[in-house]
Amino acid sequence: MTYDLENITTDFQNLQDPEKAKQLSRFFKTGKGEYGEGDIFLGIKVPEQRKLAKKYSGLPLDDIGHLLNSTIHEHRLTSLFILVLKYNKEDEKGKMEVVDFYISNLKHVNNWDLVDSSAPYILGHYLLDKDRSILFRLASSGNLWERRIAMLSTFAFIKNNQYEDALKISGILIFDEHDLIHKAVGWMLREIGKRDTKTEEEFLQKHYHEMPRTMLRYAIEKFNKEKRNFYLGR
Predict the structure, then answer these.
(1) Cβ–Cβ < 8 Å for 132, 165
(2) How many Cβ atoms are within 10 Å of 132's Cβ, its own excluded?
(3) Residue-averaged pLDDT of the chain
(4) How far apart are CA 144 and CA 35, in angstroms?
């Protein structure tokens, strides 16, 4: 059997669930004026999409791009799962090609699950030993998803005990107006704290008075009650 674009499109059709699609449309805020406005769902669960990604992991970049350009959410998410698998098995030259492809298609990485499933594992991982200036450009972008990509890419650094750029980008995004950025920054600060509490608290001591409440709550989630109360009682 040839695992091509036509086959995976058929598999998507066979797995769709209209009732689940309605639930996902509400969950991912697809209404007018909401962050996911216009996104279309088939109602396919993430584990099923991951199975499809493994099945079609050999799709060429052109076909992955076709899925990533789709208005259907599951097409885009599965294409990113495939892209991560492709990135992981490539040599350095191949990884660079995948990263270039990813960067050129960032406008289609346009919901929080799409960002979170790809940015740390492609862009973040690739930049572990490279210049990271692109993340600072993205952090200053007017596009919500590019800012989240900048923050989530630093998860790869944090996992390797490299905190400096994550903290710098957190500082850039402290005054961001969007709740999804507040959550992303708080989450990454919490991840730093799980590995190095002192480093996280040094950042918090400088900024907790000005941090949005949601960001702060995410950041201190693993602290004991006494310490949480201290920061929340600002």
Answers:
(1) yes
(2) 19
(3) 96
(4) 9
